[in-house]
Amino acid sequence: MRSRRGRAALATLAVVLTLTSGCSFGPPGADEAGTAPNLPAPSVAATASAGSGADREVAVTVLATGLEVPWGIAFLPDGSALVTERDTARILRVGPESDADGLTVDEVARLSEVRASGDGGLLGIAVSPRYASDRTVFVYYSTATDNRIGKLVLGKPVQPIVTGIPRSPQQNGGALAFGPDGYLYAGTGDGTAGGTQAPSPKSLGGKILRMTTAGKPAPGNPVKGSLVWSSGHRNVQGIAWDATKRMFATENTQPRFSELNVVQKGKNYGWPRADGTASGNRSVDPLIAWPTARSSCGGVAAMEHLVATACLLGKRLYLLDVTGNGTVLGQAQELLTDEYGRLRALVAAPDGSLWVSTSNQEDAGEPDPEDDRLIRLVFSDGGAGRS
């Protein structure tokens, strides 16, 4: 397999961000496996001001450069990250080793089954909760005719466990993650101009699916024998849970608004009749919605009271302080606005930091010589990234 190293990986950015005092990262939950990668300390710590008047530092570190549309990020027990590249169909192992140039980057798999075009290709990735014994990872990927979820041991062929998810040029979903209940969740895209599949119980399009590691409907799903957990989605590209096991999902590529939803069992999120607003067939309104031109968000991460989303058209992160009863406290704050271009993947690392990827090596992007990049955010007062 080909090996390479990130270039200029210790570049840091000074930013000023106003946050409420409740917005801080904490240590990862007990169900998050992994140890911190062996990272060199950032050379610069940026300062962010809290709403209470206290200051907190936010360190922004570029971990790796020269990637090609990195889409999904998931962590192995040794602290290294597996990163998918949408168009090359490669799975990369990033870290945990590092040197003066940053984290090492090695190709560990390339999936010949993937047919990339539009926003389809090799998308989400999730690591088995029992990886130490089964060595299995799960991927969401596009073929010429459908989207699929498969499992594989790195270096061996992928085994499809769910097929027939609708394939389209621009609405393929791709979110993939294990929930705190131990089951695998996937976000799919509607894939039709009129949004006909999102509300249909007979289609896997425009849904969040919940399954066993064999790809079978998980016990307790809303309809016995069905993979569907929630419906009425346009294009789910990010899912995450907070410490209370509350589930969040982004809604990408809606014409007017990009939504952040709190996902509940069996609920309908309104597409195609709803686009960021209430409608007659919508059972749950979004937690928050932004105009698409300032958002079009992909990845989402949740830690303690902080929920963050990474935005493509908006070229920024939004950070929300979400209270215990599920309401947003104050206004959404912004970070990295126009600093790194389009932002896509966003995950909470095992050490409590955030990792985000850029997505500039695609038709809509304007890449610079270092794109695409993996970036790490550490909020010093909340314990993120501390040993």
From TrEMBL:
Keywords, comma-separated and alphabetical: Signal
Protein's UniProt keywords contain Signal: yes
Signal peptide (UniProt feature, chain positions): 1-26
Ranges of residues in domain Glucose/Sorbosone dehydrogenase: 67-362
Superkingdom classification of source: Bacteria
Gene3D superfamilies found in the cross-reference section: TolB, C-terminal domain
SUPFAM superfamilies associated with the record: Soluble quinoprotein glucose dehydrogenase
Protein name listed in UniProt: Glucose/arabinose dehydrogenase
Organism for this UniProt entry: Actinoplanes teichomyceticus
